[in-house]
Amino acid sequence: MPPYFRSALLVAAALAAVTLGACRSAASLFVEPSPTDPLDGYKGVLAETGNRTEMDWGPKQELLLDKFTALTESKRQLEKRCGELEAMNQNLQSQLGDEGKLLAKEKALRAQAEAETEQLRERRRELEARILSLSIEKAKLEQAALHGKIQQLSASLESLSATAVEAAAPPPRSR
To answer: Digits of tens for pLDDT over the chain (175 positions)?
Structure first.
């Protein structure tokens, strides 16, 4: 057998084997899809036609436009909530500022009242000290007045006792 004949025979056998394998794999292409198969071939690339045409993507045939609209609605609601919370925060910040101002004012008034109270206490101490010194002066004056009365009474008592001694003496005899 010539050498080219042998190589031709070998190529023919390989070609027959490849053709037989291709026929068996092509047979699986003609099997109908199951009813639960998401890619059953009826919708194809375009999900629906009409006023809403959306492109299907992914293994579960999820509609991207539905997800997009849901996410934009969620974003809008979150932005609305964020605006409300920012307004509430601003309101609370202004209330906090007002309360801080009131607190500072109250602290200033309290400090002023405490200073006035301390001045009044100091004034009371001064007045009490003055009252005490005047009471001491009064007691000294009363003591001096009592000493004066005692001396006066002693002098009048001495003059009375001298007169009493003279009156008690026997009358002089008349000659």
So the answer is: 566 677 777 777 777 776 766 555 555 556 666 666 655 555 554 454 444 444 444 445 556 777 888 999 999 999 999 999 999 999 999 999 999 999 999 999 999 999 999 999 999 999 999 999 999 999 999 999 999 999 998 988 888 877 766 666 566 666 5
CA 80 vs. chain centroid, Å, equals 24
Distance from chain centroid for Cα 43:
58
Instruction: Provide the residue type at 168 as one letter.
Output: A
Count of alpha carbons within 13 angstroms of residue 59, beta-carbon side:
0
pTM: 0.39
| Greatest extent of the chain over all pairs of C-alpha atoms, in Å | 223
Q: Exposed/middle/buried for 63, CB within 10 Å: 0-12, 13-18, 19+?
A: middle
Q: Please list the alpha-helical segments (H only) found in 28-174.
A: 64-168
